[in-house]
Amino acid sequence: MPDNVLQGKVAIVTGAASPIGLGRNMTEALVRAGARVAMMDINQNWLDETSNDMREIGGDDCVITIRADVTNPDDAEAAVNQTISGLGGLHILVNNAGTNPRAAGLGSGSRANFWETSPEAWERVVAVNFSGPFFMARAAVGHLISQGWGRVIGVTTSMDTMWRRQGSPYGPSKAGHEALMAIMAQELEDTGVTVNVLVPGGGTNTNLIAPEPNLDRSALIQPDVMQAPVVWLASDESSAVNGRRFIGYYWDESLPIEERLERAGAPIAWPQLGRQAISQGR
């Protein structure tokens, strides 16, 4: 894509600051493409470190930092308002913030049966991974609709992770986010605001993967697979694409865009299963 394809655009990226996170990689890609980014995270030390790195790439005014919790609807509203006032607008929302019981400090990292999951761990993971995207999108969507242009990009997970044995609460929370994105895409049709999902494609080298002495992290998907597709999804070139999910691992910049979309893309959620509800008399 051309350099500075996102010049003049403003984005919020939640969970933006982890040194090895998807959010950091997507923030970097957006900044390199010319966007200015409000980096939202709960970890101030990571925000300070990563924002300094971004300013070395894009200049002093390419990012602002917002220490806020996506699970708090007041924080979500304040983050949107701070972005608009601090950066002069808002065009792109990347709902990336995510956690699991270990990362939230509420579990050992080993998989557990659902009945072994504490209520505290369940509530925190569902709050971040499912309620957080709702609160952020709800806070931003009025502004996006009013200007007739916007992008909502959600990071969910692979389908098999959603229902994997001993995978709760992470898997179900991400399944909820995916279903929410499908609803949002339908309800925002023809508003100029598009809704799409972007996932790495499998186990990825981030802080959600527990450190293990025998784990070869180089064998995992690397988070930079999110960079090229997030820029395209945030750009004017994706205006006709709504209600789709893309796998970063399969995004091949060497292919023509039609082949790229076919190889990496599919509908959000599970419409290929067809209508399941029984409606008598119809």
Give a brief description.
This protein has 282 residues and is α/β, with parallel strands linked by helices. It has helices at 22-32, 44-58, 73-87, 119-147, 159-162, 170-187, 227-234, 257-264, and strands at residues 10-14, 36-41, 63-67, 92-95, 150-154, 193-199, 244-247, 265-267.
Give the N-terminus to C-terminus distance in angstroms. 48 Å
**Strand content of the residues, in percent?**
5-15%
Helix content: 25-40%
Kindly report the name of the CATH homologous superfamily.
NAD(P)-binding Rossmann-like Domain
Q: How many distinct domains? A: 1
- Largest beta-sheet characterization: 8 strands, mixed
Could you list the spans in which at least 5 consecutive residues all have pLDDT below 50? none
Multimeric organization: single chain
> What's the total number of strands?
8
The topology string of helices and strands comes to EHEHEHEHEHHEHEHE
In CATH, what is the class? Alpha Beta
